[in-house]
Amino acid sequence: MGKLILVPTPIGNLEDITLRALRVLKEADFILAEDTRTTGMLLKHYQIESKMFSHHKFNEHNTVEKITQRIKGGETAAMVSDAGTPGISDPGYLLVNHCITNGIEVECLPGATALIPAIVMAGLPNDRFCFEGFLPPKKGRQKKLTALQQEERTMVFYESPHRLVKTLNQSAEFFGLERKAAVCRELSKFYEEIKRGSLEELIKYYTDHPPKGEIVLVIEGNREL
């Protein structure tokens, strides 16, 4: 029987990939990619010619059984997302769970993720923190923020640039304008930017300077409890 290997890929700088990850991608019988075009650029850069198949949130329910059978037949599959570690706010969980249920070995390599650099560079307490991924875009958003009002740990969110100001405003509504936060944008890329301050200060800044790129939002926990 083969196995499933989750392989973290760079979140920006192509040098942020381990030698082990490159070896696994070269040796895998096939690679499962969230977007074959994005992964194709990485493979071309490192002259990797392994077969690649599309595996994303829109087709994973239809492909998971076929993939599992191939692994059971002795093939090794390497799974990547567009950037970072598969399964962290990206496809991965469904296939991992299916493989475990079928007695297939699952391995995950250490490597790139936007979560850890952001929490380290935010300058907020990081001995305890909670990762909330993406807030619900509409339904359930206020319910989630209400539940987090009592959260004492530093909170980490992924966010898109066009929703950042909305999220900052809603965070200020539920957590207070003076709550400390950091917006970590385009981590590891040429235009990397870390803005720290109160939610009020960050709202003003990003209202005047609409952001672009991938964003990690770090917000201080409730320190009054």
Q: What would you note in describing this structure?
A:
The protein has 225 residues and is of the alpha/beta class. The chain has 2 domains: 105 residues, Cobalt-precorrin-4 Transmethylase, domain 1; 106 residues, Methyltransferase, Cobalt-precorrin-4 Transmethylase, Domain 2. The chain is 35% helix and 21% strand. The chain contains 8 helices and 10 strands. The strands form 2 sheets. The protein has a 5-stranded parallel sheet with strand order 3-2-4-1-5, with helices on both faces. It has a 5-stranded mixed sheet with strand order 6-7-10-8-9.
Give the full name of the CATH homologous superfamily of the largest domain. Tetrapyrrole methylase, C-terminal domain
Q: How far apart are the termini?
A: 52 Å
Give the overall shape, derived from the CA principal axes. elongated
- Give a quick account of the main beta sheet: strands, pairing sense, barrel closure: 5 strands, parallel
Gyration radius from CA atoms, angstroms:
19 Å
CATH class of the largest domain: Alpha Beta
Count of beta strands: 10
What share of the residues does DSSP label as strand, in percent? 15-25%
**pLDDT averaged over residues:** 95
Q: Helix-strand pattern, N to C?
A: EHEHEHEHEHEHEHEEHE
Structural class: alpha/beta
Please name the CATH topology of the largest domain: Methyltransferase, Cobalt-precorrin-4 Transmethylase, Domain 2
Q: DSSP helix count?
A: 8
CATH architecture of the largest domain: 2-Layer Sandwich
